[in-house]
Design goal:
This protein is of the alpha+beta class. Helix 3 runs parallel beside helix 9 and helix 3 crosses helix 10. The relative contact order is 0.16.
Length: about 475
C-alpha cells in the first residue's frame, strides 16, 4: 500500500507529462532531430504569433481573415483593404490583401457543417491561401466525395477540396490498456478549480465515471473522469484521488530526464512550430497548418481543433502540445503515424479551460512570483518561461530544451518546488543573452498596441489568456 501511494504521488508530480503512461516512467526518448535544428527560435515565433493575433483582434473580422507566421518568421495578417494593410504594417506585421474576410470563411464552414456528415472528412481555415480546405481520407467513397464536391462548388472558390492518405481516428489504443479498460491514453496538463486537482486529457479517452490506473493490472488507482466533452469538443477532467500530493505539477517531460515548465496557456498561430509528447511516441515536433478545424471521426464530429503536421499514434491521445513554456493543446486524433508522417488534430487548451472552469496548475515562483495572467502586455506571463529537468540529468546548464523559452535549469529531483524564480534567474549575468533584449523590444511593441485600443486589449485577454480569479 505504501508503494502504491508513493507511485501515485510520483504520477501527480509528472501528470503534465504526455511522455508517461501515467506511471512516472518515460516510454520513449526524445529524438535528437526534433530537439534542435530549424532556423527560427520558437520564442520569436510565439511573439510573432501574438503580434498577428492582436492585430486581427483590433481590426475585426470584417477587415481581416486570420494571421500566420511566414517562412522568415514574420507575422502576416490577411486584410481586405489598403487602410487595414497600413494599420498592420504600422503594428509591425506583414500585410496581405485577400478576397475573403474571416466572416466569409466562417460562413463557408457553417455551410459545410450543415451538409450531411461524412465520417473521414475534415475542414480547416487555411489563412495563407484565404480558403477553407476540405479533406477526405481513404475511407470516403467516390459517391461521398462527389457529394462533398458539389457542396463545395455551391459555396464557391473560398473552399478547396483535397484527398489525404490514412484515416482520421482518435489516437486511443483499445488493445493495450495501460490506464483504463477503455484503452491507453496520455496525461495532458495538471489543472485545478481552486478546490480540487485534475488531469486535463482528451474527452474520447473515456466517458464520465471512467476509472484510471497507473499500471496495466489496475492495482494502483489514479482517479476517475468527472467531466468532459466528446464529440463536439475533445477534452475531459480526471480528478485525482483524495490525498494525492502534487509536486512539480507544472512540468511536462520531454525525454532524457528533462522537462519543460508550463507557465501559461495560449493559442498557436498558423506556421508556428509546436511540440507534442505522448506515451506511445514520446516527444515530436511539427508545424501548425490550420485553425478552427472540424473533424468527422467515426465516433462523431469535433469542432474548433488545431491542425498540425506533428505525428501521433494510438495511445498518444490526451498528451500535451506546447511551445515556449505555454500549454496549447491536448492530442485528439488524426491520420498517419510517426514513420510515414501524417496529420494530427489538437483540442485547444484555452477553450477546454474556459469550458471546464479550471486553470493550469502553475508554480508562481517559476512564473515571476505570480500566477500567469493577462497583464499590461495582454499575455499569460509567458516571457519568463523556464525549462527544468524533472529529475537529475546530464544536460549541461544553459542547454536549450525543446518547447522551452529559456535555457534549461538543472534542478535535482525533489527540488523543483524550491527552484529559483524566473526573475532571479534573469538577474544572473550568465543567463542573459540577445534573446532577452528581443523579448523586451517585443513587449514594448505589444504594450503600444494595447494602448491603441482598450477594446482590442479586452478581446485579446479573453481569447489568449486563461487564468484563475
Amino acid at each position: 500500500m505504501r508503494h502504491a501511494r508513493r507511485n501515485v504521488q510520483r504520477i501527480a508530480r509528472f501528470a503534465a507529462i504526455g511522455g508517461l503512461a501515467c506511471g512516472g516512467l518515460m516510454v520513449s526518448q526524445a529524438m535528437a532531430s526534433e530537439t534542435s535544428g530549424g532556423t527560427k527560435a520558437p520564442n520569436s515565433e510565439t511573439r510573432a504569433a501574438r503580434t498577428g493575433q492582436e492585430l486581427v483582434s483590433e481590426l475585426g473580422t470584417a477587415r481581416t481573415a486570420g494571421s500566420w507566421i511566414d517562412a522568415k518568421g514574420r507575422p502576416v495578417v490577411a486584410v481586405t483593404d489598403e487602410k487595414a494593410a497600413a494599420d498592420v504594417r504600422e503594428g509591425g506585421a506583414v500585410a496581405k490583401v485577400v478576397r475573403y474576410t474571416m466572416r466569409d470563411l466562417k460562413s463557408a464552414t457553417e455551410q459545410l457543417k450543415d451538409a450531411p456528415k461524412v465520417a473521414g472528412t475534415s475542414w480547416s481555415m487555411d489563412y495563407a491561401t484565404n480558403q477553407v480546405v476540405v479533406r477526405a481520407d481513404t475511407t470516403v467513397s467516390k459517391a461521398e466525395w462527389a457529394r462533398l464536391t458539389a457542396v463545395a462548388e455551391g459555396i464557391g472558390a473560398s473552399v478547396r477540396m483535397e484527398r489525404t492518405e490514412g484515416t482520421f481516428t482518435p489516437r486511443l489504443n483499445g488493445a493495450d490498456a495501460l490506464f483504463a479498460g477503455s484503452g491507453r491514453c496520455s496525461a495532458g496538463f495538471n489543472v485545478t478549480n481552486g478546490r480540487n486537482n485534475f488531469i486535463l486529457t482528451a474527452g474520447h479517452c473515456g466517458p464520465v465515471g471512467t476509472s484510471w490506473f497507473s499500471d496495466q493490472q489496475g492495482a494502483e488507482s489514479v482517479g476517475s473522469t468527472v467531466s468532459g466533452s466528446f464529440p463536439g469538443g475533445d477534452f475531459s477532467l480526471v480528478q485525482y484521488n483524495a490525498g494525492t500530493a502534487l509536486s512539480g505539477a507544472d512540468i511536462v517531460t520531454v525525454g532524457n530526464g528533462q522537462g519543460v515548465r508550463i507557465i501559461g496557456a495560449a493559442d498557436p498561430a498558423v506556421g508556428q512550430k509546436v511540440f507534442r509528447s505522448g506515451s506511445t511516441t514520446g516527444l515530436r515536433s511539427g508545424q501548425v497548418t490550420g485553425l478552427n478545424a472540424t473533424v468527422n471521426y467515426p465516433q462523431g464530429t469535433v469542432t474548433g481543433l488545431i491542425e498540425t503536421t506533428v505525428c501521433a499514434e494510438p495511445g498518444d491521445s490526451g498528451g500535451p502540445m506546447f511551445a515556449d513554456g505555454l500549454a496549447m493543446g491536448v492530442t485528439s486524433g488524426g491520420s498517419g503515424d510517426c514513420q510515414a508522417g501524417g496529420t494530427t488534430f489538437f483540442q485547444p487548451v484555452t477553450k477546454a479551460l474556459d469550458s471546464l472552469g479550471v486553470k493550469l496548475t502553475i508554480d508562481p515562483a517559476a512564473a515571476g512570483q505570480s500566477t500567469p495572467s493577462a497583464g499590461a502586455d495582454g499575455g499569460t506571463g509567458n516571457d519568463a518561461a523556464a525549462a527544468v529537468p524533472p529529475s537529475t540529468s546530464s544536460t549541461a546548464p544553459g542547454a536549450a530544451l525543446p518547447g522551452a523559452m529559456g535555457p534549461a535549469d538543472t534542478v535535482p529531483q525533489g527540488q523543483t518546488d524550491n527552484a529559483a524564480s524566473a526573475l532571479e534567474r534573469l538577474g544572473e549575468y550568465r543567463n542573459l543573452g540577445p534573446g532577452l533584449f528581443v523579448i523586451a523590444g517585443s513587449l514594448l511593441a505589444l504594450v503600444a498596441l494595447r494602448i491603441r485600443s482598450e477594446r482590442g486589449r479586452k478581446r485579446y485577454r479573453n481569447q489568449y489568456s486563461q487564468s484563475w480569479g
